[in-house]
Sequence to fold (862 residues):
Amino acid sequence: MGETVLQMQGITKYFGSMAANHEVDFSLEKGKVHGLLGENGAGKTTLMNILFGLHKPDSGSIILDGKEVAIHSPAEAMSLGIGMVHQHFMLVPTMTVTENVMLGLRLPRYPLINPAIAKRRIEELSTQFALNVDPQALISQLSVGQQQRVEIITALYNQTRILILDEPTAVLTPDEARELFEILRVLKAHGTSVILISHKLDEIISIADDVTILRNGELVCNAKIDIHTTRKEDLSAMMVGRNIDFNFAKQATGEGRTLLSVQHLSAYNDRGVHAVNDLTFTVRKGEILAIAGVDGNGQKELCEVLTGLRKSSSGSVMLDDQDITDAGPAEIIEKQVAYVPEDRQRTGLIMNWDVSQNIVLKSFHKKPYTKGLFLSPKAMTQTAEKAITDFTIKTESSSCIVKNLSGGNQQKVILARELTENPALLIVSHPTRGLDVGAMEYVRSLLISKRNAGVAILLISADLDEVFQTADRILVMYNGRAMGVVEPTVDIQTIGHMMAGVVQGASHE
Amino acid sequence: MNSKYHQARSRLFSLIPSLISILLACLVSSIILLLSGHDPIEAFTSLAVGAFGNSYRFSETLVKAIPITVIALGTSVAFKAQLWNIGGNSQYTIGAIVAVAVSIYLDLPPVFLVVLSFLAALAAGLVFGAFLGAMKARLNVNEVITTLMFDYIIAFLLSWLVYGPMMDPEGFGFPQTALIPKAVMFTKLIANSRLHGGLFVALLLVVFLFLFWKTPQGFSITMVGQSRTVAKASGVKVSKTIIITMALSAGFAAMAGWIDALGIHGRLQDNLAGSLGSVAIVVALLGRLHPIGIAVSALFFSALIVGGNTMQRFVGVPFSLVTIIQGLVIIFVICSNMFEHIWHKKRGGVQHD
Fold:
């Protein structure tokens, strides 16, 4: 047994009524890489933000070297020897490596700055951990992998003993990821403990010594990793969990006609890389086609192209035999395409507006919400009040600001808006992410009932439970490509492999 | 149901930050007055008397409030869309230039001239605003920079016009244009005062904007201000809305220029706009971007300006006090927005990650 440097016991953290962490225990040994595994929204980042002093836990204790500590701020965390590298880098591109490392640090002779000291320390760390960073280089000239190493240096600067990495490989190329793992091995050899937040199983198995798995804010397991005996399938089963079994009555809807037909579609992401790559699929009326895959494999960009928010680079999108490739959002909405976006608070709702205004965001310019020259607040309120009853939205009244609603009820407001206009095609992206079990069940059964009523539904989800429960067919997406289309009767391992980009599944197209 | 009561109550509550801001500004400036050896009560009394003391003084306050209200209405349109149009001065000046040019160079019956100068000034404002909006929407040029810089460009354009091509040939070389024919000018409302018919135009514009926010176009502008991402996803054409917003915003300011040209100035002179544009920004913020709130705050600020002159003359308190109060009000309005934000966060902090 190694020496335990850190123990977190019974950590509980609520955001509103949502438990981000519930009674989570976590312990870390010296000189080990500890994987923290879980789906998005499982509470990994929250747990680490608590350790790094960004959030205050509602209850629970943190024990560092056998002493209980209270960490109120990142500065305190750093002085205790805890460093964190966030998923999104916090670097100033126009400044040099040394200047970036110095930001926020209290060097000797503070408040005056002394770049020479910082530069020496960077060079020292750079050689010690084989980081290979030039202290004089401008951040803007560095590759993403190099920038990450600058972040690691910043985190290590103050005799750091515990280094937290939040999904470090999400932004890296495979080669850069390999280099990062080399660095982690060197850090280990020097006795630094590393906490690696990830949802990539391969990584965890290849580098981590221990693993903690979280699901829906709760601890699922603490285990040792043995590269020879630990199986990816076991980890993924624990991560996604298959214990909540909702029973949904899926009626046979027969062969509806094809409503959406996507042919050889490609699109770039914001960084100008092909995120959607030659994708072809169809969605029929009265079926749910699920697009499964690990986040960041082009699902977001696909949604944006289909809803007119992003231009495609090639290929075509046909809706009901009409070409809607690169049509604007207004035109696509006009064609009865409803969209429940992934980021409901930033894309789906105006948080400062009330329920009735949010219900009519897409239809305010039409009757009955606009009569003659003016809007009709009365019609808006009527629709909103009907939606509140129909969708059991928990709110005081339709003039309640949506910011004050819980996540589940915010999602219901969006669903109400999208469904009241009788859509032909419904595109839903991660519809139950961050919702509690009750709301989750509600949303899934709603999707099924709309499917039974003949709506064509494209469901984008990383939650395999959801995919298996609701989908008629599953398309697995990896790296912007379709790995294949399978029936929901297929076993979870096959899908797991396809999501990891390993095997090409049986195609039904 | 209780939503009506809810709305009325929240509307009343929204007045509180502005009132507190004014109160605090008066309090702090009283301290400054005391420190500089003046009696704050005497100063404020003379200020109030100067602004409202008799019908002439009150009419002067109203005269001042007209352009401030109208420019601030325009400013508020842009601010609602989170577009920081701070170029009220240049847009006002353009309206005035066009109005005067039409009135002195075209030989038409007075009634036609009034209508034509109005249409021309409005069109000029709309086109200018649309141009600024297009720069923002299509080229992503920061509107703060463009509107601010055009303030200088238009100010120098006006200088050049009154010293050059538009200078009154019979004006003994004074840097000003010829006078607009008397018949084209607005009628005076009260004998021996400068209060003119433009007051009604300003009130009409207040009503117009009040109603405008109840139209779908007004709804889109507010939506773009709340979130461009949501607006775009909801099918609102964001670029088009930005252009319309800026056009409307500048259109209001240009109408203010037209009103003043035909109401008080009667001709172009150098530095016609003075500090109207910056006062309008404060007024728009203090009025919480609500048309009626703006009209009330405009009255308050023009009272400060008109009363401030009297105060300087009779009590010897420098006019700078008015500038200080203006500055303090803007600071407190911004602070109150911030406090409100924190307060809401504390109360309704549902979720953040």
Remarks:
- The longest helix of chain B spans residues 110-139.
- The radius of gyration of chain B is 21 Å.
- Chain B has 14 helices and no strands.
